[in-house]
Specification:
alpha/beta, Structural Genomics Hypothetical 15.5 Kd Protein In mrcA-pckA Intergenic Region, Chain A, 3 domains, 6-stranded mixed sheet, 5-stranded mixed sheet
């Protein structure tokens, strides 16, 4: 690609670049750029929402730049206050490390192995002594911190703001110093933090990074941003048929953003699709099927996407059960604790499994499960269904 085509590729679907003239200057440097993305391991799955920014990081890799993925094993214990109306519950080191271990392999579903540098910010933040911390805090003033909208709202409303929360954007900025970032990526809710990184880098005598933000992907409910705590998410390691089915449940009005951000289609093509939908030349159901195929294809390949669509038709149009279900062994205990079984078979959290049972979303051979424990004989050899689209065959 030409230099202009490279730049257009990097700017595709981007919300803001600050300052844009610095991006042009850095792209003209005679070396690969160091493009930073920090991710705090505070949940067990890499969602399609996270993948929006990860895919932009991959775009830089494809052009030969270095992707610096920072696993925020230190900052996750502090807690990012972005877009929070109250102090966030702190995670323990064990919780953070457990999440980090689960996430690393999932990142590689999106990123290339080439031009990839994975770092943990405990490497430098854990080594900061009191003198180093005081030097870092001198990078910004309290007045600057209160310019941030969520801090300003909480201060005006009398809600407490801990000094530790003030530290978070400074720690994130110090990450940029430690890895000598040229560019930092983030969601639109991260712009203030990314700009603070510029301030901290200048304090330490570095050329400030360019802040590049991408839109936040709405969840499968079509209302709230994708969130594991809200349950409106799709994970990049969700099985193809589950990924396809969840995408098909998306409200029609959310499809254009998903075509851009989740399927990574070219903006001009999405505009053509939008025009076809408005004019009645395209049926929303057909567009959504294409969206689902594109999303599954990104993570599992075209063949898996085609098979997932066939499974979807078999289950939803024909009212059947998917063929070739994987068989999972039943525990020897009797009765079987149903929430524990769901957690083992489908990989859900214990709280989600209990919620599904309470909502009547669990059945065995068509019989709704209501109790917390079920006789083993009623489960042996049966097909378990959880929600609308997850199936498994249970062993004898």
């Amino acid at each position: 690609m030409s230099a202009d085509a490279d730049r257009d590729h990097l700017l595709r679907h981007v919300d803001q670049v600050v300052p844009v003239e610095d991006l042009d200057r850095k792209l003209n440097l005679d070396r690969p750029l160091r493009v930073k993305l920090g991710v705090d391991p505070t949940a067990p799955a890499v969602t399609l929402g996270w993948a929006v920014v990860l895919r932009k990081l991959r775009h830089f890799q494809e052009l030969g730049h270095t992707a610096v993925l920072i696993v925020g094993d230190f900052t996750a214990q502090v807690g990012d206050p972005s877009d929070k109306s109250a102090t966030r519950k702190r995670l323990t080191a064990d919780e953070v490390n457990g999440y980090a271990e689960k996430l690393l392999g999932q990142f590689r579903k999106v990123l290339l192995d080439d031009h990839l540098e994975v770092r943990h910010n405990s490497e430098w933040l854990g080594a900061l002594d009191m003198a180093g911390l005081l030097e870092l805090t001198s990078s910004a003033t309290v007045a600057q911190m209160l310019e941030r909208s969520d801090f300003a709202k909480r201060y005006a409303g009398g809600s407490p703001i801990s000094v530790m929360e003030f530290l978070y954007p400074l720690l994130q900025g110090y990450d940029s110093v430690a890895v000598e970032a040229d560019i930092e990526l983030g969601g639109t809710d991260q712009l203030w933090n990314l700009m603070m990184g510029r301030v901290v880098q200048e304090r330490y005598g570095q050329q400030p990074q360019v802040a590049m933000t991408l839109p936040l992907l709405v969840g499968t409910d079509g209302v709230n941003k994708m969130s594991q705590s809200l349950g409106n998410y799709i994970g990049v390691e969700d099985p193809p048929d589950e990924m396809f089915g969840k995408t098909m449940s998306l409200p029609d009005e959310a499809m254009p953003d998903w075509l851009r951000l989740a399927a990574d289609l070219d903006g001009d093509e999405v505009e053509t699709i939008e025009s076809g939908l408005t004019a009645g030349e395209l049926h929303p159901g057909d567009v959504k099927r294409r969206l689902a195929r594109e999303v599954v294809g990104l993570y599992w390949g075209a063949d898996a996407a085609e098979t997932a669509e066939q499974v979807f038709d078999q289950v939803f149009k024909e009212g059947g059960v998917p063929d070739d279900l994987e068989t999972f062994p039943l525990p020897e205990e009797d009765p079987v604790v149903i929430a524990s079984l769901i957690r083992e078979v489908f990989g859900t959290s214990g709280s989600e499994a209990r919620r599904l049972v309470a909502q009547g979303a669990v059945s065995v051979d068509g019989r709704q499960i209501e109790g917390l424990a079920v006789p083993r004989s009623e489960l042996a050899g049966a097909v378990m269904k959880v929600g609308k689209r997850r199936f498994a065959r249970l062993g004898e």
